[in-house]
Amino acid sequence: MRLFVALDLPDPMRERLTRLAGSLAGARWTPPANLHLTLRFIGEADRVMAEEIDHALSAIRGRGFKLALCGTGLFTRSGKTCSLWAGIEASEPLERLQGKIETALVRIGLPPERKRFKPHVTLARVDTVAEPALATWIQAHNLLRSESVAITHFTLFSSLRGKEQAVYHPEVDYELG
């Protein structure tokens, strides 16, 4: 089973991001149900490892916090633009939670995450969209902001590959005090 740890976005934030869908011709927009903020990608795990992951995540303690959208941007892979994202406002509680998750998973034997944590929500795949159109879209939406929303839990998700998009299923929610 393919796993990742994420924040399932509260409805007001999800609705704000969903309104952007379709505003860039040729982009493959993330379905509203799949919008999330990844805290740690895990990858393939068998049932025994999934139980160890659940146990490690269950031991994490933290307080709820506020989260807000802040700007947009692009990710590239091998020099080619591949995805469009909405940024998340810098937050010490978010960074602390992500660090606790990373530490807990490394302690049970998962390899450390190689990429630096950059809080974002992937909005669309844009590998077939022309660069000028991407630049225009970013200029039009780079001031994206949202009201802060309360985050009260984080979630362990499984991911099944679909024909066009992956299907994410929340496996376990972990409450934040």
From TrEMBL:
Single annotated GO MF: RNA 2',3'-cyclic 3'-phosphodiesterase activity
Gene3D superfamilies noted in UniProt: Cyclic phosphodiesterase (3.90.1140.10)
Any Pfam family: 2_5_RNA_ligase2
Recorded catalytic activity of this chain's protein: a 3'-end 2',3'-cyclophospho-ribonucleotide-RNA + H2O = a 3'-end 2'-phospho-ribonucleotide-RNA + H(+)
Entry keyword set: Hydrolase
KW tRNA processing (keyword) present: no
InterPro entries: Cyclic_Pdiesterase (IPR009097), RNA_CPDase (IPR004175)
Active site, per annotation: H36 (proton donor), H120 (proton acceptor)
Residue window of motif HXTX 2: 120-123
Motif (HXTX 1) on chain: 36-39
EC number(s) per entry: 3.1.4.58
Family recorded in the similarity comment: Belongs to the 2H phosphoesterase superfamily. ThpR family.
Job of this protein: Hydrolyzes RNA 2',3'-cyclic phosphodiester to an RNA 2'-phosphomonoester.
Protein known as: RNA 2',3'-cyclic phosphodiesterase
Organism: Lichenicoccus roseus
High-level lineage: Bacteria, Pseudomonadati, Pseudomonadota, Alphaproteobacteria, Acetobacterales
